[in-house]
Amino acid sequence: MKIIIAGAGKIGHAVAAILADEGHDVTIIDQDPDTISTLSNELDVICVEGSATNPEVLREAGAADADLLMAATEEDAVNMVCGISARRLGTRHVIARIRDPEYLGQTEFLREALGLSVIMNPEYECAKEISRILRLPSAVRVDAFSKGSLEIVEYKITKDDPLNGLQLKSLVGKFGAKILISVVERGGEALIPNGSFTLKDGDRLSITGSSRELRRFFVATGRFKKPVRKVMIMGGGRIAVYLSRLLDESGIAVTVVERDRERCEALCDLIPRAHVVCGDATRSDVLLEDGLSSTDAFVALTGEDGDNIVTSLYARSCSVSKIVTKVNREHFSELLENSGLDSVVTPKEIVAQQIARYVRAMDNSLGSSMETLYRVADGKVEALEFKVGEDAKCIGKPLKQLKLKKNILVAGIIRGSKCLIPDGNTEILAGDHAVIVTAAGRLKDLDEIVEADT
To answer: Are 36 and 8 in contact (CB under 8 A)?
Structure first.
């Protein structure tokens, strides 16, 4: 596909890297010559210097016959104008980044009025991911399918964990919960395990199940953390605003610590039910005075990775039960793996996954449509949700009779309001939503899970 990305900031760069790696023809527009020079050396993309609102620049980038344009500059208004111009020039689909909280309730109106295919809000999507993590604090990460009917959660085994040394075929019998361990990350390698696989200390698991069964599993293993009722947020940016609103809807008390007094005054209007503190959250006395030791969760959301990491480590030393840390640079996620800060979020990666899902769905001309895509195990494995079409090759046969390709697992099936964890006798039916976990390469269609002669 021919794709244009307007704006080469953190989001634009991350999306361009994924789409170029997937084999698409990517063109990037940016006004900064240094940024253009850097990207042309780093990525296999075409770079055009200029303003994304200039029709001549858009024409030069190929907007007249582009399949998709993503407007991802820092300014909402620029992205809107760029999207309108691209559509007028002939671009088939347009995604625009619109970040201002004032626009959140007008998303559908703006999408229709401006002719946009998707409105993308990285900060809101990051807030939603954090709220999912806080809803199930026993997990490191939570990815939801079919509006939460089925989830894949990430969990790390410790030395004294009851899962340490357990063979997977004994899992359900010992703990009773209907869950499936779909991925094991060990020693930098992502594995799709079978029943004879034995878990051990340090393994990072991706566990599939309904929200109810996952809670049941964590209770049975003694690893269930009490529900979050009080949250302290460090930093008062857009993510903090969206997260505070989501948590307030769930009845969770929120304290936001922000050092800029003018921003604090704005926060009092934006999130009136939250307790806003004007202070420096990198200082231990400020955190302790405002209740860090009695809070259930601490979320670090400033624009400085170093401040977020150091303050999160301090919160951990104060025995805060759940800590979520935002970082902008991916390599910090790897460094933090053994520090005890397991729940790390990176907004640009969240958006890049969403755009990859949308593009792959656009590129799919076969029978079963892809609706959700997540990259798990540090991007080594993909978890995808497909709506099963009438002509899908996998329907009407028990899974044990299907010749699945190597390193592919049917991790869950959503059938109406029911969430099924499949076994060998389970059949996939037309109309189901099938969740597939694969370490075998990129899938565009459900038919690709089976060998050609099946």
So the answer is: yes
* Cβ atoms within 10 Å of 215's Cβ, excluding its own: 16
What homologous superfamily is domain 2-120 in, according to CATH? NAD(P)-binding Rossmann-like Domain (3.40.50.720)
Query: Which residues contact residue 174 at a Cβ distance below 8 angstroms, ignoring those fewer than 6 apart?
Result: 166
For residues 30 and 49, give the distance between their C-alpha atoms in angstroms, rounded to a whole number: 5
Q: What is the CATH number of domain 350-449?
A: 3.30.70.1450
What pLDDT score was predicted for residue 149?
87
The C-alpha atoms of residue 384 and residue 410 are separated, in whole angstroms, by 10
Q: What is the pLDDT of residue 177?
A: 92
pTM for this entry: 0.85
DSSP assignment, residue 228? Answer: P
Is residue 154 a contact partner of residue 139, using CB atoms and an 8 Å limit? yes
The position carrying tokens 């991916």 is 330
Say if residues 203 and 186 touch (Cβ distance below 8 Å). Answer: yes
Instruction: Answer whether 2-120 and 230-320 agree in fold.
Output: yes
Tell me the domain boundaries of the chain.
2-120, 230-320, 350-449
State the DSSP code for 400.
Answer: G
- 373 beta partners: 384
Query: In the CATH scheme, what is the code of domain 230-320?
Result: 3.40.50.720
Which segments in the chain show pLDDT lower than 70? 331-335, 337-338, 363-368, 453-454
Beta bridge partner(s), residue 137: none
